[in-house]
Write a structure and sequence with these properties.
Helix content: 25-40%
CATH topology of the largest domain: Heat Shock Protein 90
Largest sheet: 6 strands, mixed
Strand order of the largest sheet: 1-2-3-4-5-6
CATH class of the largest domain: Alpha Beta
Number of domains: 2
Oligomer: single chain
Low-confidence stretches: 1-31
Order of helices and strands: HEEHHEEEEHHEEEHH
CATH superfamily of the largest domain: Fervidobacterium nodosum Rt17-B1 like
Number of strands: 9
Shape: flat
Length: about 270
């Protein structure tokens, strides 16, 4: 019996080892061979509004940021600095220490939050003084020639509800460039794109008014199938309407000659 038990245990260990090897190989093959490498910086902290008031209001900050860790130095600096700027960071990043830069965002937020002369008796309604900041970054497209990232945020500052939204960043990698509307479209004015946006908006009742065309926004996202225009709450509709995203297929843009040739070639290769 002991011998049988040992053989069974050995077989189990070999099976686990084979499964682990298979998993590692699968993870390696799911990575695009020419894709760029990103690392993640995860930080979370909180601070009390008033020292010693442990049951009182606090500020909480959570961030999951991506940092481009491979590719040309110019591209790395452009992508990483653009993401930092989107979070509200201004200035130079000493020695390329992006973790320290993101940490400084938390420290600055906490310093502003604590800049008061409040006493415990002044805090009659603690929820009015609560504060939450949540940020995360996702890599949506990471292929030769094109990088697309999204930045998701949520902020609550003691009001009736929090505010949230998504902002997009689009980059060409060769050459390294942050794309604007004018870089993507042959015409990017409201007169040209506005009616097209209205045409592809599924629920016009979500708008403040449907009597005027939707203005194009720099908050857009290139995809393999088309372009997404993103409008966070309050931008073109009330909070109750939520975030509004309008998708226009590449076929439609090509038919109207609105995509620049180099962009048409780029998205056609995805």
């Amino acid at each position: 019996m002991p011998k049988f038990t040992c053989l069974l245990s050995l077989a189990f260990l070999l099976l686990c080892a084979c499964n682990q090897a298979s998993l590692t190989q699968e993870e390696a093959t799911t990575t695009e061979p020419d894709s760029l490498i990103f690392t993640t910086i995860s930080l979370e902290d909180s601070i009390l509004l008033i020292d010693g008031m442990t049951d009182g209001p606090m500020s909480r900050y959570q961030i999951d940021a991506k940092v481009l860790a491979s590719g040309p130095s110019e591209l790395q600096r452009m992508v990483n600095d653009s993401l930092l700027a989107a979070y509200g960071f201004a200035g130079e990043v000493p020695n390329g220490d992006y973790r320290a830069a993101y940490r400084s965002l938390i420290d600055t937020t906490f310093a502003v939050y604590r800049n008061h002369d409040l006493q415990p008796e002044d805090v009659e309604y603690p929820v009015s003084f609560m504060e939450t900041n949540e940020f995360s970054t996702e890599v949506l497209i990471n292929k030769p020639g094109l990088l697309v990232l999204s930045r998701n945020f949520y902020f609550f500052g003691g009001g009736a509800h929090g505010i949230y939204g998504t902002s997009y960043l689009n980059f060409t990698t060769q050459p390294a460039k942050s794309l604007s509307l004018d870089d993507v479209f042959t015409k990017s004015d409201t007169m040209t794109l506005g009616p097209l946006l209205m045409e592809h908006l599924e629920d016009k009742e979500r708008l403040y008014t449907d009597e005027e065309p939707v203005p194009p926004t720099q908050n857009f996202c290139l995809t393999e199938l088309g372009v997404i225009f993103c409008y966070p709450p309050y931008e073109i509709g009330p909070y109750a309407a939520g975030q509004i995203e309008i998708f226009i297929p590449h076929e439609v843009l090509k038919e109207r000659a609105l995509l620049r040739p180099e962009i048409e070639t780029l998205v056609g290769s995805l």
